[in-house]
Amino acid sequence: MSTSLSGLLLMAFGAFFIGGAWSFRSQKLPLIVQLIMAVVGIALAVYGGFILFTYN
């Protein structure tokens, strides 16, 4: 798999986690669950962007 594709896939996967955190917020689930989802999503998106822009 190319580095471009893997970076984009990680960024998309991170966006799904961020969207899940937003959905959990609107469902009024506990704050800790929202924070975990958001932190994981942001970390995946940032790492995907790092791979995309560093190794391309």
SSE inventory with pairings:
Layout: H1 3-26, H2 31-54
Helix pairs in contact: 1-2
Give descriptors for this structure:
56 residues, mainly alpha, 86% helix
Can you describe what's shown?
With 56 residues, the chain is mainly alpha-helical. The protein has one domain. Helix content is 86%, strand content 0%. It contains 2 helices and no strands. The chain has helices at 3-26, 31-54. Helix 1 (3-26) runs antiparallel to helix 2. The longest helix is centred in the N-terminal third of the chain and has 24 residues, at 3-26. The relative contact order is 0.27.
Which value, in Å, is the CA radius of gyration? Answer: 13 Å
Q: Give the proportion of residues in helices.
A: over 70%
Poorly predicted ranges: none
Largest sheet: none
Class by helix and strand content? mainly alpha
Strand residue percentage: under 5%
What's this model, at a glance?
The protein has 56 residues and is an all-alpha fold. It is 86% helix and 0% strand. The chain has two helices and no strands.
